Amino acid sequence: MLENVTVVLVRPKYPENIGSAARACLNMGCPNLTLVAPRYFELDRAMPLATVHARHILEQARVVDTLEEALEGQSAAYGTTARTGGWRKGVMLPPRLAAVVGEKTRMNGSVAIVFGPEDTGLTNDETQLCTSLVTIPTDREGVSLNLAQAVLVLLYECFKEALDRPFVPDGPPDERLCTVAEQETLFSNLKESLLAIDYLREGNTDYWMMPVRRFLARINLKRNEFNLLMGICRQVKWIAGRAGRGPESH
Known about the structure:
Helix content is about 45%, strand content about 10%. The protein is built from 11 helices and 6 strands. Helix 5 (about 95-105) links the parallel strand 4 (about 75-80) and strand 5 (about 110-115). The longest helix has 20 residues, at about 225-240. The radius of gyration is 20 Å and the shape is globular.
């Protein structure tokens, strides 16, 4: 049902939570689980919580060292957060996430839903690697959800959306969606171009570029469009360099 969705657990602390997350994946038809630098991953401790039915998800789980590795090839990545405001703006609620995930996957995209460590959640640097953020509303007296509970809630919303409109391509797209890595490359080049023409000033540029990042997160950027925008960035930097204002002038 959610074949193009991957659950990414960043530095999970407890094998039992990994097992429970695998069971949640099984329940909601999501076969893809990636672990980023797990602190302890003991199959014998994870298995009882996964049950024998989700054993294959645990055994086939991809284990990598960094979040960047986990997001390779993904068209979008949505990080979970209990904190909002500041750097964490434009945060979606679960139903909106489900609609966005459905839209991406129906365009032949692949999507990662990223969960941070049980005790600290994702760092600001890790959230910057995500296309956008999602939060699960809770009562003020209990804002912290168990890791596997959070996985189940978000996958359930995606599952419901898929029941109404299956997460299968509506038709062949003109070109594939850009990957998260390609979006980051474009974002960096846009920032350099805006600095070169003095639209941005040095100092805290990442904060002022946040609206641009949120804009890119809202559109389904395809590879041919990526090539077009990268070409524009190169030309802007070249002209700025000839005018003595950009990196080409040094």
